[in-house]
């Protein structure tokens, strides 16, 4: 199962490293490239609950196989995107299909792992699952950088083909039991969830294009939240709901979900923004940017294992508190170092930030699953993964808007100080900020006119301007982890292993 989900974890980060090459070859807009990444995350968030429910209804083995096939077919189509006007829409659409396949695959795979281990051993087992999965996420930037430099950026999608073949073979060899539960799929609820999440994230994402004073921005955000609110109301009256909201009556589960939300505001977006920062402000190659991210994963992997042991011994609360405060301090210190433009001076803070999230991710996810009703592990896994990936989508949108706005403002001020008129400086700054997803080790600006001439002369100043803009993003991530810490203080503490032992279902019969 760890090998099966490896593709989904790798794809959360591998595209970020290839982003500059994709933008240059396909001539995507900055917002278009962000949506290539965000479409995957949004589809994950919108469909995870559906995937978890389907795993309960039809058995995890079957859903793992279907999810793997959907994912790999969409990966091939992403790698075959044609150049021209259709490129952006094509890539965004099939990235969304990839996300749907991952949303089927991951909760089913995790439900299998959860069912294998009793609650008192589940913390360490899932810490290993999430720790190795996190390590596989670290492979994404390295693999993406190597494939992009040695062959083509399209290979970052095609690499999923051999991995899917191996995953399917291992799944067949494992003779996984198909545990099924009675009920039906709540299609109306699934549609409401997808619509609510899609609209709200669209509003956040487009705010830097439409502007915060545009009614369309607030209409999307407010409309999405209203739909999500109606979804909650609707689910209470459904006999077989997509999400059994009774699980939120457990204070520990509610706190776990809140902590995961604020931690994931930073975790997945960090890969995108840190890799772009490395390539733009540090002039790093894709491979160097990938190595830069390894500092984060070093801290994350160690803390994940430590957090799992803390969970098994004393419950989730100590690990969540440690992770929240460590991550908050780590991101804040890292933000202060960004303008030094020295990769090697930043590694202690990058590792500290990664460790903070590592202490949170596995313990909060495992503790939430331990509190499952029934126990419907697929459904509860769907809830926690929905929270995590919706948060990642919102984080990408909000931090992306912040980065673009501050970058544009900084470069405009720099050019005006060099003697350009306000209009010329604004036009030049707009073109640069619209290309924030690429240009590390790229050719210098090639246009004509005063703005382009000035940009060629002050590349160093622009790199600093971009680094200063990233400081706002990283301070925002520090605030998110600080809020996660405050929620962790509300956790009831203790373990739920003994309580769940009473309700443990007998082992299911092997099927095929």
From TrEMBL:
Residues 1-496 form the Major facilitator superfamily (MFS) profile domain. Keywords: Antibiotic resistance, Membrane, Transmembrane, Transmembrane helix. It comes from the Bacteria. Its main location: membrane. The chain crosses the membrane at residues 34-51, 63-84, 96-118, 125-149, 155-177, 184-204, 216-232, 253-277, 289-307, 319-335, 347-366, 472-490. Residues 422-454 are annotated as: Disordered. It is a multi-pass membrane protein. It is found in: Cell membrane. It holds the Pfam family MFS_1. InterPro entries: MFS, MFS_dom, MFS_trans_sf. CDD domains: MFS_MMR_MDR_like. This is MFS transporter. It comes from Streptomyces fuscus.
């Amino acid at each position: 199962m760890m090998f099966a989900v490896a593709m989904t974890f790798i794809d959360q980060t591998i595209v970020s490293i290839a982003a500059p090459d994709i933008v240059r070859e396909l001539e995507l807009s900055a917002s278009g490239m962000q949506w290539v990444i965000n479409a995957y995350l949004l589809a994950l968030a919108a469909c995870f609950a559906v995937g978890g429910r389907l795993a309960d209804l039809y058995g995890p083995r079957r859903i793992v196989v279907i999810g793997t096939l959907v994912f790999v077919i969409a990966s091939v189509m992403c790698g075959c995107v044609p150049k021209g006007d259709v490129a952006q829409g094509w890539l965004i659409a099939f990235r969304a299909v990839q996300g749907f396949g991952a949303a089927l695959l991951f909760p089913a795979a995790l439900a299998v792992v959860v069912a294998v281990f009793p609650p008192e051993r589940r913390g360490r087992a899932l810490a290993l699952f999430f720790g190795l999965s996190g390590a596989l996420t670290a492979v994404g930037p390295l693999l993406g950088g190597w494939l992009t430099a040695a062959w083509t950026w399209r290979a970052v999608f095609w690499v999923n083909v051999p991995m899917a073949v191996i995953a399917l073979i291992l799944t067949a060899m494992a003779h996984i039991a198909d545990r099924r539960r009675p009920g039906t799929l709540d299609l109306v609820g699934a549609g409401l969830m997808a619509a609510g999440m899609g609209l709200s994230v669209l509003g956040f994402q487009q705010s830097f294009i439409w502007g915060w004073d545009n009614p369309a921005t607030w209409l999307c955000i407010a409309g999405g939240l209203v739909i999500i609110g109606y979804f909650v109301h609707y689910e209470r009256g459904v006999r077989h709901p997509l999400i059994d909201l009774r699980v939120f009556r457990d204070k520990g589960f509610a706190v776990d979900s809140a902590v995961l939300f604020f931690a994931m505001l930073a975790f997945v977006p960090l890969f995108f923004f840190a890799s772009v920062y490395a390539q733009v402000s540090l002039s790093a190659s894709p491979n160097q940017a990938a190595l830069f991210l390894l500092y984060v994963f070093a801290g994350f992997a160690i803390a994940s294992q430590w957090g799992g042991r803390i969970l098994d011994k004393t419950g989730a609360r100590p690990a969540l508190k440690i992770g929240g405060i460590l991550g908050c301090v780590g991101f804040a210190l890292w933000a202060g170092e960004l303008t030094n433009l020295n990769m090697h001076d930043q590694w202690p803070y990058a590792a500290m930030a990664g460790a903070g999230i590592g202490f949170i991710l596995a313990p909060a996810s495992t503790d939430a699953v331990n509190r499952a009703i029934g126990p419907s592990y697929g459904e509860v896994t769907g809830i926690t993964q929905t929270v995590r990936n919706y948060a990642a989508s919102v984080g990408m949108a909000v931090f992306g808007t912040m980065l673009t706005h501050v970058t544009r403002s900084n470069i405009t001020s720099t050019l005006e100080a060099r003697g350009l008129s306000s209009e010329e400086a604004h036009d030049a700054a707009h073109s640069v900020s619209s290309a924030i997803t690429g240009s590390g080790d790229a050719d210098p600006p090639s246009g004509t006119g005063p703005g382009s001439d000035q940009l060629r002369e002050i590349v160093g100043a622009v790199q600093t301007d971009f680094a200063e803009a990233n400081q706002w993003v990283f301070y925002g991530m520090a605030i998110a982890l600080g809020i996660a810490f405050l929620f962790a203080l509300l956790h009831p503490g203790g373990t739920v292993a003994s309580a769940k032992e009473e309700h443990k279902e007998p082992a299911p019969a092997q099927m095929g």
